[in-house]
Amino acid sequence: MGLVSSSASSPPVTAAGQPPVMHLASDRHLEASTNLSTWAIARRLPGTLAAATRLGWRTDRHAILALLTCQTGAAALTATALAATTHVLTAVFTADHIAPGLRENLPAVVTLALAACGRYLLDAGALAAAARLAPKAVREADLQVITAATAAELVAYEDPDFEDAHAAASDGAQKTGDLILDAQLLTSATAQMAAAATVVTVLHPVMLPLLTLSVIPCAWGAVHGARIEHAAHHRNLADSRLRNVFRSYTTERNTADEVRAGTMAGFLIRQYRIVSGRLETEQLKATRQALVVQGIGDALTAVGTTTTWGALILLVATGRMELAAAGTAALAVRTSGAALTTTVLAGSRLFRTSLSLDDWAHFLAVAKPWTTRRGTAAVAEDGPHVITTQDVTFTYPGAERPAIDGINLDLKRGEVIALVGENGAGKSTLAKLLTGLFLPTTGSVKWDGVDLAGADPTGVLSKVALVPQDYTRWPLAARENITLGQPRPEGDAAVHAAAASAGADAVIANLPHGLDTSLARSWWGGHDLSGGQWQRIAVARAFHRDAPVLVMDEPTAALDARAEHRIYTRLKALAAGRATVFITHRLANTRLADRIVVLDQGRVAETGTYAELVEQAGSFFEMLKLQEDRD
Ligand SMILES: Nc1ncnc2c1ncn2[C@@H]1O[C@H](COP(=O)(O)OP(=O)(O)OP(=O)(O)O)[C@@H](O)[C@H]1O
After folding, report:
1. Whose CA is nearest to atom 12 of ligand 1?
2. Tally of structural domains, the chain
3. Protein residue with its CA nearest to atom 6 in ligand 1
4. Which ligand 1 atom is at minimum distance from the Cα of 585?
5. N or C: which terminal CB in the chain sees fewer CB atoms within 10 Å?
């Protein structure tokens, strides 16, 4: 997600001489918010319910069956209780004495009591099943997002649409629990409503239309209110995310030193206030509009309800309905009226949740074409003898110029290649192409003649050990930080050997619990390392992997001279039997390479041994002289 300055369509906020605050660029949500019609809301609900049921079925069949059974049972018992009520009320109002009347209708009384108790029990059962299902559904939905994200090609992360959809989907997955609970509420209310409505219709046909008419304004108000608020929520999505970005950059540990040293807190807090102000204004406007709409709906509903009660009284007064039946009708009107209102409110909530579920489904659709589908061609178990690039170009998604432009190279097993060049020359990108992390836009990368575009990606990547430029400080124990959760058969002996080669043995020796020490620095018991110590761990990680293709992107940038010397000394020994590539800006280190490749704007500018490039006195020699003069 890129950050851009204010666009012409949204005027910049210039409070008291402050620079305009940034807006987030992409926002498909804004478009979505303007396209929400009430009809769209109504049409969406059945599909959403079906999606919730499918997700529930995949997650916990027993719970979803229990949920459906309890809800059907509760609806049947509601109808039974209402029917029994007629009998009981008839007994009460028509008998000379209430007690004998009740005794004569004992089965109806017992049925009424049992049905009422049973309904409450089944409602509770349905709620329990939904509560059991909801967290599992969240987990399942989130796992689908995680699975889709990890199955995608690495280059997908360079595509802003993928990243944007991914962020929205993560929020959407968290809402699936609400979806299950809202769906339970909706189906429960609908079932109750249907049961009560049937009884009302049997008692007098005019009652149901009256009742329905009285609830329509309430439904209209609730749905329109939800629509207004959801549209505002969508309009605010970009600003909400921007505010979160300001918040985390202002308070997180990674930036805490720069915030203080750069005395940036005031500036950042002002930005936070400006974005918050925008959010609050938008939200307040929407809340006012929604309240007006809902107020109108509620007022009309009050009129409708009064009319319904009036009609009931009129029916009794004119002798068109018996007093006993009127008692049941009164109960049924109340039951179905309340159920109708709950149905409407649950429906509007479900609609809101369904939009979040849309974000979730949208990401799964966006991620699909990015899914790694390369082929099944196998590469040699012991790694490639030769890696060949043929006219390789690579352009990042959305970029205008290629980062790699027509590269032809051979890298043989046992050979060490140093990639050098100015910032942005394309070194890291080429390293990712050689290892199959990226596929070329045009041209090919082949391992022993096998095009990586058609090779089994797991087979390829299992033969690669990579120290990326921005290595990860995993919040795991020191051991897992080196094994990456994949210990070798030799166990800790291999970990210690890799650590020694990378100069990380001293780091581990100083940890309070050795390899068991947690390096999750923000947690109690977690131990922090210095930048250079972390880099030694990252190099040890690559050495431990013992893979036939070793790629190290500026592996010693944070290391002291002794540690750097140690790594490059070990590298020569480790390179035997491997294809090794390292990227460095310290050109003196390239002496140990068998070949140096100098990149310039994505092209090979020079290539040769250290001595040859010095002899040529080209750009490599020029950079070398600049460094030597500086040192
Ligand atoms: N995600 C991206 N989207 C668009 N362009 C990118 C992206 N990542 C890198 N680039 C561009 O690709 C080019 C090559 O980047 P690369 O990271 O490979 O350079 P490098 O030689 O490793 O640089 P450095 O020495 O600074 O690490 C640069 O011009 C960079 O701006």
Report:
1. 403
2. 3
3. 396
4. 25
5. C
